[in-house]
């Protein structure tokens, strides 16, 4: 398994957009917190969060290649289950359907990170520390808010045995722990 440092180096080499880098850090933080909650391999789950979108800038105009290219980029550096989870996070195009906790988790973490960041940005001072679980819940239920975020992907948390409100709170707290790194 590659180190966190190597994963961050790969992000710097392949991603130019600061928001995308922050997204990958956010997903990694949520994955790490989920692994703690579910008694899973924190390092593996965090690395998955860091590398799941390594190819995004390269494949954003070819969604059918997204995740397949990321998996190629880290092949031989991560375990087979991480490669499969990378592909499963874009199952609509890769055909790799999620089937285990890590694969459901990457779906849910990927989507919820965007909802939480969007919620923070509409707080009076645009800060994560101002967001509360109730505000994230309210924004989840408001389909006109952050319309591009697939709420069904967030609900994959239920496959992990977590209720929606429990998952939203866990994810919010995870991101609040790294708010300075995220610039929020």
Under CATH at level 1, the class stands as Mainly Alpha
Low-confidence stretches: none
H/E element sequence: HHHHHHHHHHHH
Q: What's the tally of helices? A: 12
Strand content: under 5%
| Secondary structure: helix percent | 55-70%
Report the radius of gyration as a whole number of Å.
15 Å
Please tell me what the overall shape is: globular
Mean pLDDT: 96
CATH fold category name: Hypothetical protein af1432
N- and C-termini, Cα separation: 30 Å
Based on the coordinates given, report the CATH architecture. Answer: Orthogonal Bundle
Main sheet record: none
Query: What would you call the structural class?
Result: mainly alpha
How many domain regions? 1
Number of strands: 0
Please characterize this protein's 3D structure.
- This protein has a single domain (4-182), classed as Hypothetical protein af1432, CATH 1.10.3210.
- The chain is 64% helix and 0% strand.
- The chain is built from twelve helices and no strands.
- Helix 1 (4-14) packs parallel to helix 3 (42-51) and helix 2 (18-38) packs across helix 8.
- The relative contact order is 0.14.
SSE inventory with pairings:
Elements: H1 4-14, H2 18-38, H3 42-51, H4 56-59, H5 68-74, H6 80-88, H7 91-94, H8 101-121, H9 133-141, H10 151-154, H11 164-176, H12 179-182
Helix pairs in contact: 1-3, 2-3, 2-8, 2-11, 3-6, 5-6, 6-8, 8-11, 9-11
């Amino acid at each position: 398994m590659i180190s966190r440092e190597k994963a961050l180096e790969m992000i710097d080499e392949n991603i130019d957009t600061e928001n995308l880098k922050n997204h990958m850090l956010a997903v990694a933080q949520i994955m790490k917190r989920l692994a703690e909650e579910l008694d899973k391999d924190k390092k593996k789950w965090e690395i998955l969060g860091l590398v799941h979108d390594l190819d995004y800038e390269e494949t954003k105009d070819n969604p059918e290649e997204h995740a397949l290219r990321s998996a190629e980029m880290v092949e031989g550096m991560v375990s087979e289950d991480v490669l499969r989870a990378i592909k499963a996070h874009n199952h609509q195009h890769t055909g790799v359907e999620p089937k285990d906790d890590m694969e459901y988790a990457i779906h849910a973490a990927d989507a919820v990170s965007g909802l939480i960041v969007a919620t923070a940005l509409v707080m009076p001072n645009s800060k994560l520390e101002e967001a509360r679980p109730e505000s994230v819940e309210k924004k989840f239920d408001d389909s006109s808010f952050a319309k591009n975020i697939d709420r069904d992907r967030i609900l994959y948390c239920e496959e992990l045995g977590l209720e929606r409100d429990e998952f939203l709170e866990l994810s919010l707290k995870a991101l609040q722990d790294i708010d300075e790194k995220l610039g929020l």
